[in-house]
């Protein structure tokens, strides 16, 4: 039975889709059969970041409406065995998702997969509620700034009260904090909240800290999830986060301003 | 299946209550204006209930009163504790007549006959309402007729209300309203005071007024002389 994990935030542009792609790909690389679902109906970002936009024929909404079956709509990744993407529709609006429809698709996927990653749209409206409703775990993606932390706090309240687990009185949704776009030098300058500041306010387990990195932009421009770039700081930080998600204890990296080595100082870097 | 266009549900809201001590509306306008200028954000558009308890059966010019409050960018919604006459006059200018439990206590009637009636009052203990987690932004908790204990924090944008005391073992960043039904000995206790608003029995302070010595410290908030008093939680 698959675990359903929602990647959510409240605020837009914090790195949900980047993180969904990286974590989903990382789990599949470790041998877990993984599906990433794009819940951001109308925008369709995930397929671009995964580099499979030209292979989209049917989408999530088609499956919900019974116009295609799951096997037709799931796109198998060409690089990583066991990785599948269910793209969003670009032509429909957010109301195209019904709770019954989403539940049916998730139930069908659950039997065949180990992990289902739900890439949530921003906001706290219908689309975001749909993405988190059936979740077993939530990766609350947060940037180290006040407005993003507030929105994450709001989402945590919704997970506690409006998710299926909450409504059914089951064990609560397991909450993880993923701090993204972390810029240690701006934190040191007092322009951004520190890891400790954010943890103090949100008070949930820290899954990972992803540094602000040019590797992310390069990765999304070339349609390669950033974990595939094992040399990059962001790729490594995502990999650490995935190991923690799987229960390992991993030290945190990339939290402090890197001191430039003597060679870098001479030659620039 | 036809979609319903609405649903009617009861709910609890916190409203500011204007306790009117005089019918001098000119004076009221002056004093209110001053008060509002201290925290305009808090007041603009705020729904206001006018408590007439202290006016006994004086005639009130509700039309002018209402307009005055509107001019000050408040939103008068109703009155409470009026006499029958006052209630009728208020209704005539579309102010609702609200029930307010406090101050409503009827004077005890003298016994009609000589038979001795022994009334045994059953002591009812209402255990506190306990919240095991952090109260998150957008959430509201109301502990009716009892104390509220929050083991986590109260986030910015969250609101905790109790008719009794409020104990917060984490940081209070949002709003806390104790003694909501008029219990003036209610207190708010918190491990760390960084509140947006604290209120006890209708007296409130917003964050600006709280940022003194005990900001960020363990503190208790009580009502004193119709205002608030903040003291350290741990006596050294
Ligand atoms: N760690 C990072 N470093 C630099 N840029 C990032 C990082 N994470 C995300 N971004 C950039 O931020 C933007 C928003 O990311 P995206 O994943 O689409 O956010 P969301 O899905 O939350 O709206 C994108 O341009 C992305 O490349
Ligand atoms: Mg996105």
From TrEMBL, chain A:
Q: Name one Pfam family in it.
A: AAA_31
AAA domain mapped to chain residues: 2-161
Q: Which residues form a coiled coil?
A: none
UniProt keywords (A-Z) are: ATP-binding, Cell cycle, Cell division, Nucleotide-binding, Septation
Cell division recorded as keyword: yes
Q: What GO terms in the biological process aspect are recorded for it?
A: division septum assembly; negative regulation of cell division
Recorded hits in InterPro entries, A to Z, give: AAA_dom, MinD, MinD_FleN, P-loop_NTPase, ParA/MinD_ATPase
Top-level taxon in the UniProt lineage: Bacteria
Q: Which SUPFAM superfamilies match?
A: P-loop containing nucleoside triphosphate hydrolases (SSF52540)
Entry's Gene Ontology cellular component terms: cytoplasmic side of plasma membrane; cytosol
A molecular function (GO) term: ATP binding
Q: Does the keyword Cytoplasm apply?
A: no
Q: Which residues participate in ATP binding?
A: 11-18
Give the record's subunit note.
Answer: Interacts with MinC and FtsZ.
Q: What does this protein do?
A: ATPase required for the correct placement of the division site. Cell division inhibitors MinC and MinD act in concert to form an inhibitor capable of blocking formation of the polar Z ring septums. Rapidly oscillates between the poles of the cell to destabilize FtsZ filaments that have formed before they mature into polar Z rings.
Its family remark reads:
Belongs to the ParA family. MinD subfamily.
- Supply the name of the protein: Septum site-determining protein MinD
Q: Which organism is it from?
A: Pseudoalteromonas caenipelagi
UniProtKB/TrEMBL annotation, chain B:
Entry-linked InterPro entries: CAP/MinC_C, MinC, MinC_C_sf, MinC_N, Septum_form_inhib_MinC_C
Per the database record, which ranges form the Septum formation inhibitor MinC N-terminal domain? 6-76
Example of a GO biological process term: regulation of cell division
Q: Which UniProt keywords apply?
A: Cell cycle, Cell division, Septation
What is stated as this protein's family in its record? Belongs to the MinC family.
Subunit details for this protein?
Interacts with MinD and FtsZ.
Protein's name in the database: Probable septum site-determining protein MinC
* Source organism superkingdom: Bacteria
Q: Does the keyword Cell cycle apply?
A: yes
Task: State the protein's purpose.
Answer: Cell division inhibitor that blocks the formation of polar Z ring septums. Rapidly oscillates between the poles of the cell to destabilize FtsZ filaments that have formed before they mature into polar Z rings. Prevents FtsZ polymerization.
Question: One Pfam family for this entry, by name?
Answer: MinC_N
Which NCBIfam families would you find in this protein's record? minC
Query: Per the database record, which ranges form the Septum formation inhibitor MinC C-terminal domain?
Result: 130-230
């Amino acid at each position: 039975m698959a675990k359903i994990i929602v990647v959510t935030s409240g605020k837009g542009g914090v790195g949900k889709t980047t993180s969904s792609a990286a974590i989903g790909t990382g789990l599949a690389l470790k041998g877990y059969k993984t599906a990433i679902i794009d819940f951001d109906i109308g925008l369709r970002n995930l397929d671009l970041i995964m580099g499979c936009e030209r292979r989209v024929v049917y989408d999530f909404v088609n499956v919900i409406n019974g116009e295609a079956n799951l096997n037709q709509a799931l796109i198998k990744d060409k690089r990583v065995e066991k990785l599948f993407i269910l793209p969003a529709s670009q032509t429909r609006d957010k109301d195209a998702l019904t709770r019954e429809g989403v539940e049916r698709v998730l139930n069908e996927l659950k039997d065949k997969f180990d992990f289902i990653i739900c890439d949530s749209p921003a906001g706290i409206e219908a689309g975001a509620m749909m993405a988190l409703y059936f979740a077993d775990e939530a990766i609350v993606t947060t940037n180290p700034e006040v407005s993003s932390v507030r929105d994450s706090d709001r989402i945590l309240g919704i997970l506690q009260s409006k998710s299926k687990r909450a409504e059914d009185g089951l064990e609560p949704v397991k909450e993880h904090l993923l701090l993204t776009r972390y810029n240690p030098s701006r934190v040191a300058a007092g322009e951004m909240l520190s890891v400790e500041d954010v943890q103090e306010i949100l008070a949930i387990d820290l899954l990972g800290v992803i540094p602000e990195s040019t590797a992310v932009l390069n990765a999304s421009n070339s349609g390669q999830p950033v974990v595939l770039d094992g040399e990059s700081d962001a790729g490594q930080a995502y990999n650490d986060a995935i190991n923690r998600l799987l229960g390992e204890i991993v030290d945190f990296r990339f939290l402090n301003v890197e001191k430039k080595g003597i060679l870098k100082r001479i030659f620039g870097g | 299946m036809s979609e319903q266009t609405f649903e009617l549900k009861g709910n609890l809201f916190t409203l500011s209550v204007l306790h009117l001590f005089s019918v001098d509306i000119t004076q009221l306008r002056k004093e209110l204006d001053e008060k509002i200028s201290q925290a305009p954000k808090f007041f603009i558009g705020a729904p206001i209930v006018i408590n007439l308890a202290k006016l006994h059966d004086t005639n009130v010019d509700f039309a002018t009163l209402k307009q005055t409050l509107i001019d000050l960018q408040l939103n008068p919604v109703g009155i409470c504790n009026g006499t029958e006459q006052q209630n009728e006059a208020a209704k005539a200018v579309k102010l609702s007549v609200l029930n307010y439990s406090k101050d409503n206590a009827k004077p005890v009637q003298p016994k009609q006959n000589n038979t001795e009636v022994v009334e045994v009052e059953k002591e009812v203990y209402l255990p506190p309402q306990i919240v095991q987690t952090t109260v998150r932004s957008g959430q509201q908790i109301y502990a009716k007729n009892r104390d509220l204990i929050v083991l986590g924090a109260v986030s910015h944008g969250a609101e905790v209300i109790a008719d009794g005391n409020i104990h917060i073992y984490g940081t209070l960043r949002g709003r806390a309203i104790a003694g909501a039904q008029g219990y003036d000995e209610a207190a708010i206790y918190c491990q760390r005071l960084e509140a947006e608003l604290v209120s006890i029995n209708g007296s409130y302070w917003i964050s600006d007024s709280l940022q003194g010595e005990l900001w960020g410290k363990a503190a208790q908030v009580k009502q004193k002389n119709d205002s608030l008093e903040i003291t350290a939680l741990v006596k050294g």
